[in-house]
């Protein structure tokens, strides 16, 4: 019994300001991710509409963008399941600030990857 009290007292507790900062970072990353997903879907839809007139190179680009969108969907679903504790083998504990920080970092990384792809599509379309 005494050992349990020692363990629980040595656990780091994030301050309300730290928790709020982490949550805001996560919200910003998630909103940016959704915005980019919508942009990517719009680009894919336009490319599909023009696919009949485009050479094979554009079709390969379209396939790559569609794979990226599927990857985005998979990541988002995984993060949502992780947040709700419904992933197999996971406890049903609520998300922790560190977990939210990891999610925000992952989404930021994917946002950069999506930006790079969308920039390439825009550059090719303008050329």
Structural class by sheet pairing and helices:
mainly alpha
In percent terms, what proportion of residues is strand? under 5%
Strand segment tally: 0
- Low-confidence runs (pLDDT<50, min 5 residues)? none
Q: Rounded to an integer, what's the Rg over CA atoms?
A: 20 Å
Task: Give me the oligomer status.
Answer: single chain
Biggest sheet details? none
Helix and strand run: HHHH
Instruction: Give average pLDDT, whole number.
Output: 77
**Helical proportion, percent range:** over 70%
The end-to-end span amounts to 71 Å
Contiguous helical run count: 4
- Per the principal axes of the C-alpha atoms, what is the gross shape? elongated
Molecular structure report:
This protein has 127 residues and is mainly alpha-helical. It is 80% helix and 0% strand. 12% of the residues are buried.
Which characteristics define this entry?
127 residues; 4 helices
Would you spell out the secondary-structure blueprint of this structure?
Layout: H1 2-9, H2 16-49, H3 56-84, H4 97-126
Helix pairs in contact: 2-3, 2-4, 3-4
Summarize the entry for a quick read.
With 127 residues, the chain is an all-alpha fold. It has helices at residues 2-9, 16-49, 56-84, 97-126.
């Amino acid at each position: 019994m005494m050992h349990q009290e020692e363990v629980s007292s040595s656990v780091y507790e994030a301050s309300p300001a730290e928790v709020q900062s982490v949550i805001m970072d996560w919200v910003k990353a998630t909103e940016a991710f959704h915005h980019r997903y919508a942009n990517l879907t719009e680009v894919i839809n336009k490319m599909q509409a023009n696919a009949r007139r485009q050479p094979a190179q554009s079709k390969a680009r379209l396939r790559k963008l569609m794979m990226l969108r599927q990857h985005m969907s998979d990541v988002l679903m995984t993060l949502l399941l992780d947040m709700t504790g419904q992933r197999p083998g996971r406890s049903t504990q609520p998300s922790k600030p560190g977990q939210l920080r990891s999610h925000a970092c992952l989404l930021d990384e994917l946002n950069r990857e999506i930006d790079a792809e969308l920039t390439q599509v825009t550059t090719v379309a303008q050329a």
